[in-house]
Structures are given as C-alpha cells and as structure tokens.
Amino acid sequence: MCGRFAQSMTREDYLALLSEEAERDIPYVPEPIGRFNVAPGTKVLLLSERDEQLHLDPVIWGFAPGWWNKPPLINARSETAATSRMFKPLWLHGRAICFADGWFEWKREGIIKQPYFIRRADGQPIFMAAIGSTPFERGDEAEGFLIVTTAADKGLVDIHDRRPLVLSPEAAREWIRQNVVGRVVEEIVAKGTASADTFIWHAVTRAVGNTKNQGAELILPIKQEVL
C-alpha cells in the first residue's frame, strides 16, 4: 500500500520530466514544495490533463463518495479498479499523477514497526498513478483522490506486499491523456510500470510516524536498532 510519501522538490523538478512548458497551464513557482511527510486527509498537488493542457491542483488525498459511510479510502488496487462499482468512473475519467520523491512503508521487526523510505535508485522522482473525483480544480473538500497500488515483487515484498503503481515519465504522461480509453490504459500500465529493481530503500527515523514532523531528516538513512 502507500500511506505516506515525500513531495519535497520544486514543481519544475517533477514537471520537466513529463512535458514541455507549452503543454502546461501551471504557474512557475521556484520554491521547493518541501513536504517530507505527506499524509492522507491533506491536500496534495495532483497533476491532470484538461483541454489538452496539464494542470496542477491541490486535492484531498482520500476518497469517500456520498453513499460511503466508512472512513475515506486512500488506495485503489490496479487489478480491480477498472471494473469496481466505486472506482470504475474514476479510472475512466479521473486519472491523474501524484509525483513524489519516494514513499514510506512500515515493517514489523521484533517489538517495533520500523519505517523504510523507498525511492528510485537513480534519484529521479517517482510518478504514482492516481484516480480521483473530477473536476480537480474545484478545490473543495468533496471526495478526492486515491493512489493506485499493485502487488509488490522481488525484494519489495519483504517490506510490504503492495506498492504504489509507479509509472515511467513517458507512461505517466500517457496515463493522464483524456483521449486514452479502454485497453490502451491497460497497455500503459502493463508496459510502463517501473519494476522492483528500479527501487532501493533504507530504514528511517520513527519520527515519521507523527504527521506533525515534516523535516528533511525524515527521509535520511539511520542505523537500525537491534532489539
């Protein structure tokens, strides 16, 4: 699954890998986003396409339609989202990208749950497939978005059995095109998903468990405690 991630670089650090400036309707902001501990229930910058232009909107991470009487969901399984009652409309019309530096997972080790930060080995940003309730630009508290997950493989399964559906920059751009439908979407996922050997991970401070903590030290490696 994905329940926490970092989105700390500048907008341009992420966008430059996806598109030319002419394709965007996004103001230039030189300051880093600076969020090292993004949590569900907060507004997150989400990238989508409208009228053949890319837009960046602050959208609530979490999805709960009006008839849903449980806590908001934050993830959707790639294996079933395209056909499920709740997620099919979002898969068809609300595909987006949530960019990040990496994500956190917790693994029980002895009597503690040790958090790990997972990122690309080459240091590049990651582009997580997302689906949500449009229009994203409305900016209200209604519904929101979910991060799409897939089964973990190889070494990643040792940390958690699910992981975000991370797409290559090229696949991420295709994922959010409004004119892409049906089996083409499935092909984008099949061909454009980053493999497990794309990623590396390291143990980080348990301070990341408190959402009030937001400093850059949260993603730095630590020496693991032996209990």
Pick out its properties.
single chain; mainly beta; 6-stranded mixed β-sheet; 5-stranded antiparallel β-sheet
Structural notes for this entry:
- The protein has 227 residues and is mostly beta strands.
- It is 12% helix and 32% strand.
- The chain has helices at 11-15, 88-93, 169-175, 183-192; strands spanning 5-7, 35-38, 43-50, 53-60, 75-77, 95-100, 102-109, 112-120, 126-132, 145-151, 162-164, 166-167, 199-203.
- Strands 5, 6, 9, 10, 11 and 12 form a six-stranded mixed β-sheet that branches.
- Helix 3 (169-175) packs antiparallel against helix 4 (183-192).
- It is globular, with a radius of gyration of 17 Å.
Give a brief description.
By secondary structure, the chain is mainly β. The protein has four helices and 13 strands.
What is the topological layout?
Layout: E1 5-7, H1 11-15, E2 35-38, E3 43-50, E4 53-60, E5 75-77, H2 88-93, E6 95-100, E7 102-109, E8 112-120, E9 126-132, E10 145-151, E11 162-164, E12 166-167, H3 169-175, H4 183-192, E13 199-203
Parallel strand pairs: 5-10
Antiparallel strand pairs: 1-2, 1-7, 3-4, 6-9, 7-8, 8-13, 9-10, 9-12, 10-11
Structural class: mainly beta
- What does the main sheet amount to? 6 strands, mixed
Structural shape: globular
Count of extended strands: 13
Radius of gyration: 17 Å
Summarize the helix and strand pattern as letters: EHEEEEHEEEEEEEHHE
Low-confidence stretches: none
The rounded distance between the terminal residues' Cα atoms is 26 Å
